[in-house]
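Annex B, item 7. Sequence and structure tokens for protein A, then protein B.
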Amino acid sequence: MAKPPVLASLTWTDSRRFDVTSARISTVVDGDSNAGASPVQMLVIALAGCMAADVVDIVRKGRHALTGFRAEITAERAPEPPTRVISASLRFHVEGDVPPTAVERAIALSRDKYCSVWHSLRPDIQLTTAFDITP
């Protein structure tokens, strides 16, 4: 079954700032990164959030004892306009009694099948992933 379309409303408030509502959430998008995340920051956060949610979900469905999780992302941008994202490096910090093979599998499934954000981006963006596990 197809997911419903994503709807959002942006209302200009000042300078390059917009109040945003989408479904039951509200936030601010700020092209100057003062009152909220910039559009590119939101894109990078969305990629990390999508893959992180997938990895946590897959690891937990595998009945592994996940006790903590953190993701960090660094994205490089093109030097000339449009200064689009050209590469991203995503590192997952996994806590608990989780075998490395389970984390590797979860990351691969997210990247290759489930992460809708990743699959919505240009295919020439380089994405690297890594992880560490703390028992």
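Protein B:
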Amino acid sequence: MYAAHFGLKLLPFENVPDPAFFFDDGEYQRVLRRLTSAIDAGRGLMVVAGPIGAGKTTLSQKLMADLSVSTVYLWLAEPPGSDRELFQMILERLGARHTWDSRVLALGILRDKLLKLQAAGGKFLLVV
């Protein structure tokens, strides 16, 4: 209804964050640049915190939309219930078929997959 009235081609107020509507100005632009720099530099951890509705999810969607094709990412809307679930999700995203025999074995497989990805010039990004 309002889309036709204002001549909009897309609905701007959907419940699903859309990186096409990312407000690339001020603090959002600064945070996006810092995250991108951290990924490029291979930093291990970055935290973005803010109240509900501040734009964290839209920011993460924009970040992932702009990633190079050599970056594999896993976006979790909510953290898994256990370390076992987390490892299984990461291993699956990296293409490893793994039955959970032990945490140590899973960590070894994860390490091997990440080293192979890095050797091929790739990176892995986990967004929770």
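Comment on protein B: The helical segments are 2-6, 26-41, 56-65, 83-93, 103-119.
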